[in-house]
Amino acid sequence: MTTDPDPICPLCLRPIPPGVPQSLHHLIPRLKGGKGGPTVLMHHICHKEIHATLSEAELARVYNTPQALRDHPRLAGFATWIAKRPPDFMSKVPKRRRGRS
Fold it and tell me: Source organism's superkingdom (predicted)?
């Protein structure tokens, strides 16, 4: 009998084992027309970092694919940093570091 591998977080590319804080990210924010649209499962800390970095408008307009999220300079740096931590690593994510869009 084979077991299914753990899903992979599309931002940090680490596995998401059972029991690790996780959440669904709407690739197009619900408030911008993404209700019922595609979602991706990711670590909760990765999801929080996305929303601390980008506005709903930026997410809808430009950063609406996993690759686009990984290409964002701040998120790329975060992904490199978090990739060195275990999958269940949690830390406080700073509040927004940018002006409202």
Answer: Bacteria
